[in-house]
Amino acid sequence: MRSVRRYVIPLISLLAVPFVYNSCQGGLLGGKGYKAAGAALAQCKAGMENGVPRKMEFNDAVPPGAFANKKVMLREDQDNSGTQSKASGPVLVAAGKSLGIILNNSCLQESSGQFDSTVITKAALASGGVIPGLDRQAYEWTLDRDYTDSEIEVMAAAEVCVEGISWNREYKIQAVFNDAAMASQTHLTAIRAKESYDSFYNAGGGMALTGSLANATVVAVVDTGVDWNHPDLKNNMWAHTNGVGIDITTVNTANVDYNPMDVSGIGHGTHVSGVIGAVSNNGIGIVGTMPYRARIMAIKLFKREANGELSTTSQFFYNAVKFAYMNGASVINLSLGAVGAGASTDSLAMAAVTEAVQHGSFVTVVIGNADGGGNGQVVDGTTFSSIPGQYATMDGVIGVGSFDALTGNKSYFSHYSTTFVEMGGPGAEQGATGIYSTLPTSLNSYGRLAGTSQAAPVVSAAAAMTYGIIKEAYGTPPTPAEVERLLKASAIKSQALAPYFKDGNRIDLVTLVQKINNEYPNTRSTSTASIINPCF
User: Fold this and answer.
1) 61, exposed or middle or buried, with CB in 10 Å at 0-12, 13-18, 19+?
2) How far is C-alpha 516 from the geometric centre of its chain's CA atoms?
3) In CATH, what number is assigned to the domain containing residue 151?
4) How many angstroms separate the CA atoms of 80 and 197, rounded?
C-alpha cells in the first residue's frame, strides 16, 4: 500500500454581501480597477463570534504574511531539502535555482514599461502572465547566476513592486489508493452525519434544501483538478462566466484553463470533491458530507511531469489560495503538503494562508501520511515537519489527521501531533482501505482513496455546514476563528486519539449542530436575527 503524497492551495474572489463590506473586491478577473500602487485599501467584513457580529478588518496594501517586516526570507525559511545554508555566513543561491517572488500587480500596471532595468521583476514577469483581478501574485525567478542572499536583499529593496521572496519549494498530494470495490460510506456513519442532517437542514432555522445559489457555501478544492462533468458532481460545481475554476499552472501560457479537469492518475481532486459535496438525493452514486447547499470551486494546483509524477510549487500554492478567497470561497481545503525530516518553513505558503483567513476564508490543512505503507510519525516542526500542516496554530486554520472509520483508532499511516493536529477525521477504514467517493468517469466513476487527504474534506464539509447554517439564520457568516472554535469545542474527546491529536478531538456532526444551536438559538427559530453592521 502506498502512502505519502502531499498537499497544495488555490485563489478566489470575495462574496458580494452588501452589508458586510465597506469596499468591494471585483468579481473573477476584475470588474474593478487596480488600486494605486502603495495606496492603502482597508476593508471591513462582519463575522459572527459567540453569537454577535464582530468587525474583521484587513488592508490589501500591507505586505503579505511573513513578509510584513522583510522582503527576502531565504535565511529565515528552513527547507528540509537542504537548499539553504545552515551556517552563519552568506546564503548562496546557485544558478538555475527557482525562487518564488510575490509582486504587487497594481504596482506593475501603474509602472508598466519601467522594468527593463530591473532583474527580479523583469525575470518574474517573463515566467508567467498576470492574473487579472488579483492585487498581488506569486511568480517564479530562475536565477541566471549564483547570488548571495545579501545581493538579493539589495536588489529587492530597489524594486518597488517586489513584496516577498522565498524558496519555491515542491508539494505533493496526501493520499493512498486502494481498490474500487462497492461499499457503504462508513465515514459518514463514523461522524453521525445522517443523524445530524435533520438539524442542519430544516424549516425551523436550519439551512434550506434548495434556493438561490447566492446562499450556497463555496468550498475551494485546491488540488489536482476535478472531473467537473461527473454526474454526481456537475450540479454542485461553482461556476463563473469563464468556467468552474482555474488551472493555476496554465496562467503562464497562452490558454488559461478555467475548466480544470483532474490530472491525477488516481482522481485525487475528484475524490476529495465528492467527499465534500457530491450531489445528494439524485438516485445515483454517493452523498457528500455536506449533502445540500455546497458548491465546489475547482482549483488545479498540480501538473504532471514527464516522469508521470504530480508536482507543484510555492508560487502556484500562493496563487491558488489567493484565487480561492478572492472569488468567494468560504472554506479552502488543502489536502496537500511537504512532509519530511528536519525543520521546515515556507513564507509564500504562510502568506497565502494568513491572507485567506484575514479575508474571511476558513482553511483546512492536513498533517500528511507516511510513505511506502509505513507508520506515521510525530510532527514537531524541528526533527520532522509538515507544511502547511504546521500553520494550523493560526486562528481560522484547522489541522487534520486521520482515524479509522470503523475502529476509531488513529490510522497507522497518519502523521500526528498534539500541537498541529487539532481534529481527527475519518480517512480510511480497516487499516488503509479507502473512503468511498467519486472518481473521474475515466476511472470507473467511484472508488476508494485513503489518507489525511480524505480526512480533511470531511472536516471542510463540517466547516461549510457551520458557515452555512449561521449565515442563513443571521445573515452574517461566522468568522474563520469562530468556525474553528465551534468545531473543536463540539468534537468528541477520544481517549484512543488523545496521544496523537490535540485533546483527542474527532469530528462529530451531531455534537457540532447541537453546539451551534445552543450558542446561536436563532438557528432554531423561524425569525432572522437583527444584525447591525459593525463596519459602519
Assistant:
1) middle
2) 23
3) 3.40.50.200
4) 44
With beta carbons less than 8 A apart as the criterion, state whether 302 and 88 touch.
Answer: no
pLDDT in tens, 20-74: 222 223 344 433 333 333 444 567 788 888 888 888 777 766 776 678 788 888 8
Sign of CA dihedral 155, 161, 164, 169: negative
Q: How many CB atoms lie under 10 A from the CB of residue 55?
A: 13
Q: What's this model's pTM, rounded to 2 decimal places?
A: 0.83
pLDDT band, very low/low/confident/very high, at 467 (cuts 50, 70, 90): very high
Cα(200)–Cα(32) distance, rounded to whole angstroms? Answer: 36
DSSP classification of residue 410 = B
Distance of CA 36 to the CA centre of its chain: 29
Domain coverage including residue 307: 1-536
User: Are the C-beta atoms of residues 253 and 292 closer than 8 Å to each other?
Assistant: no
Instruction: Mark out the alpha helices in 261-328 (DSSP H runs).
Output: 268-277, 314-326
| Gap between the terminal Cα atoms of the chain | 56
Phi and psi torsions of 441, nearest 5°: -60, -25
Please name the residue ranges forming H helices in 216-308: 268-277
The residues that are catalytic are: 223, 268, 453
Query: What pLDDT, on the 0 to 100 scale, is given for residue 274?
Result: 97
Beta-carbon contacts of residue 280 (< 8 Å; ≥ 6 apart)? 287, 288, 291, 292
Cβ neighbours of 184 (radius 10 Å): 9
Domain count, the chain: 1
d(C-alpha 536, C-alpha 460), whole Å: 31
Residue from 166, 191, 197, 182 nearest 457 by CA? 191
pLDDT tens readout for residues 230-260? 999 999 999 988 999 999 999 878 789 999 9
Q: Bridge partners of 166?
A: 73, 100
